[in-house]
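Homework help board

Subject: predicted structure for assignment chain

Our instructor gave us this sequence and asked us to write out the predicted structure in token form, then describe one feature. I got the tokens but I'm not sure how to describe them. Can anyone check?
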Amino acid sequence: MQVHWKFIIVLLTIALACHTSSLAQHPNVLIIVSEDNGPELGCYGDKHARTPNLDRLAEQGIRFSHAFTSQAGCSQSRATIMTGLYPHQHGQIGLATWGFRLYREDTFNLPRGLKAVGYRTGIIGKLHINPESAFPFDFEQIPTANFNRKNLRDYIAHADQFIRQDDRPFFLSVNFPDAHDPWLRQVDGLPENPQTGDQVQAMPYMGIDPAGLREMVADYYNSLSRLDTLVGELLSALEKSGKANDTIAVYLGDHGADMLRGKRTCFEGGLRIPLLIRWPNHISPQVRHEMVSTIDLLPTILTAAGAEVPEQLPGRSLQPLFTPGAVPWRKYYCAEYHTHGGKNNYFPQRSIRSERFKMIENLLEGEVHPDYDLTISKLEKEAKARKITGGLDLHAEIAKATPAVQNAYLRMRKPPRFELFDLSLDPFELQNLAELPEHAEVLKELQKELLQWRTETNDPLLNPRALEKLNAEVRSVKKKGEAQEINWSYPDYFFEK
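My token output:
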């Protein structure tokens, strides 16, 4: 009997060691994605933000101070998170609700790669990528955008159910609706003490700060506060499950706020996002200042999971940044824009930035950017619907701004071929230096590097014929209903020989 129990103890010890080794090799992965918000969080130094849970997550892991998305649009960005590719590489160049889609249904993605090594996969909240059949999730809940914020705590309940389902490693993507518009002041008592317009200021990249706009900005911050509470409850559920120490927790925004000079642009206000990663016993809590992008998430997660990483991905694993110390890293970060819905915000762009300088190339040089008036009209209608005292006349507010801000908005409405900014002196991208002789060398350098990136990533819009066809195709579709009924042709002609 004594030998028998000793033998059992040995077996249990071996089994426990194997289980611990398996967890180390196949950590759980929890990705939390918020809607339409840049780094307006307390941990990023925003004095108006009330985000204690996200601030705590930042203290426990890595806060990336210079994190960016691939395109400032929901479907485009989320497809990059899932595939590790730029929009011009994966094909989701516009919103899924307008019928835009991946070039190929068999495009490699995170759930496919992780299922191959034994992960169970789940998603809560919207996927927003076409076709949905390309993503083989085992567990799906709340597939709608849920912008009316119904039953928000269902996100936590479904996540808790999935996390506790069994002991196999899991990949779970939780997609909250905040801080997408409409910016709701309070939902189900969240936040407990909402902020008002006299307690906040508009984000500085907009260049104007009228009282009517502040009311909407206040509710943007209230949305972020509500998001923070839900993230805290989700992380608490993970902790109570006993799996937090074996889980990589990633939080990020899909792109910047739907404000002036934010979403649907190549400005920093649209491309810059919050990115926090916690992995107990594998990540040293710190702040990293290297330029990182959503293209880096797929190789990072697959590497951590011991899964195969596809060759020739544009991004790179973030693991070298998990411990303190200098690491050779990218010198340039590139991004893009195509369209959001249809003709009303179609304006193809490419951008590149170094640590100091930023350049935007506008592929429809000299044309009016249709989204300029659309965004202004949208915000003014929102102010009217809210019955904000005095209303909101953004054209008048811009006319009262400094000459630099006025010129920035004029240029935004009708952009030149190239825009160049010195971010060290002009972080809000107001003064275009592209025509100044003293910056000719910098402009030439960034033009060369951007062309190299476009060539290496097989950008279809390098072909003038492809750009002409895309112009005609997108501009021919006037309404969302039409877009949903047609079968976009760009996946075919983008790569014609």
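Reply (TA_rk): Your tokens look well-formed. For the description, you could write something like this. The domain at 26-332 is CATH 3.40.720.10 (Alkaline Phosphatase, subunit A). That's the kind of observation they're looking for.
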